[in-house]
Amino acid sequence: MTILGLTGSIGMGKSTVAAMFAAEGVPVFDADAAVHRLQGPGGALIAAIEAAFPGTTGPAGVDRPALAAAVLGDDAAMKRLEAIVHPAVAAERAAFLADHADAPLIVFDIPLLFETGGDAAVDRVAVVSAAPDVQRARTLARPGMTPAKFDAILARQLPDATKRARAHVVIATDVPFDSTREAVRRVIACMAARPGG
Fold first, then answer.
1. Buried b / exposed e across 97-113, counting CB within 10 Å, b at 16+?
2. Is 148 exposed, middle or buried (0-12, 13-18, 19+ CB in 10 A)?
3. What is the CB neighbour count within 10 angstroms for residue 147?
4. What is the mean pLDDT of each run of 10 residues along the chain (197 residues)?
5. 1-27+104-197 maps to which CATH number?
6. Closest Cα partner for 175 from 183, 185, 164, 187?
7. What are the extents of the domains in the chain?
8. What does the alpha-carbon distance between residue 45 and residue 65 come to, in Å, rounded to a whole number?
9. Are the C-beta atoms of 105 and 126 separated by less than 8 Å?
10. Are the beta carbons of 171 and 127 closer than 8 angstroms?
């Protein structure tokens, strides 16, 4: 089995690329989706998050804007949140790996792969990348996103150039959709031809 870590900064198109891998039959563990489940209605992390950040949860689970306001720009608060969330996501990832033990290739879709040291737990890393103006336009088109929030998020992520330099593969998303899909297919073919990466 080869474990491919898929990462990329906000607005780079990582979710689209992850969906392309899934459409090709590759099991994809989506760390963000796991976080949403754990923080959703009745989620396993609700009590711990409420205890650490009072007023950030309710019947619908975590109030994401309230939690973001409580942690963005505050390194100590972010570390407290990460200490709650990261172990739970790691447990979900381990269960996913066990469920797909026979797959020749698995993708771990992890936004902060390098930032959390997660690259040490994968065989290869693919970074999804686009030009800065494309990234900014995509991100600012999201509901509730502001330039200040975008800048705060970027400040917590390694620069795209650093991620690209550390990657085994770079997948461009500021090209025609079919070109990105073809790049994904080439990565799958390469990984399948070379078990273990």
1. beeeeeeebbbbbbbbb
2. exposed
3. 10
4. 94 95 96 91 94 93 91 89 91 94 94 89 96 95 92 89 96 97 96 66
5. 3.40.50.300
6. 183
7. 1-27+104-197, 43-99
8. 17
9. no
10. yes
CB of 107 within 8 A of CB of 28?
yes
Reading across the β-sheet that carries 169-172, which strands appear in turn? 28-30, 105-109, 2-7, 124-129, 169-172
- Tell me, what's the pLDDT at 196? 53
Note the pLDDT of residue 112: 86
The reported pLDDT for the residue numbered 195 is 58
For residue 136, the one-letter residue type is R
What is the spatial distance between Cα 31 and Cα 120, in angstroms, rounded to a whole number?
16
Q: Cα(151)–Cα(178) distance, rounded to whole angstroms? A: 30
Helix count (H) and strand count (E) of the chain? 9, 7
- Element containing residue 107 per DSSP (H, E): strand 105-109
Cα–Cα distance for residue pair 10/33, rounded to 1 Å: 15
Helix (H) or strand (E) holding 2: strand 2-7
* Overall residue count recorded for the chain in this entry: 197
Rg (CA), the chain: 17
Contact between 6 and 108 (Cβ < 8 Å): yes
In Å, what is the CA distance from 35 to each residue of 28, 61, 131, 167?
15, 11, 28, 24
